[in-house]
Design a protein that fits this description.
single chain, flat
């Protein structure tokens, strides 16, 4: 993947770049903590889901996301 930026526009105005993977999260520490919050009902993940689909509907869900019709669709596999 590539990113092309006009350097003067970004850095000439005081901008900066910072790479991240999961932000500042440490998965071995933070994932168990977040799971506990969810199980306690203190992290309402359902509020972040705007749709559900099965595997056959994944392409349509991605199209809807690209068009701005949905934010996050979860593929339910049974």
């Amino acid at each position: 993947m590539e990113l092309t930026l006009p350097l003067l526009d970004v850095f000439g105005r005081g901008g900066s770049l910072k790479s991240s993977w999961y932000g500042d999260c440490l998965p071995e520490r933070d994932f168990p903590y977040l799971i506990d919050l969810f199980l306690q009902g203190r992290l309402p993940l359902d509020r972040f889901v705007t749709g559900r689909t099965d595997l056959a509907g994944v392409d349509s869900a991605l199209d809807a996301m690209h068009e701005g019709d949905t934010l996050r669709t979860v593929a339910v596999i049974r």
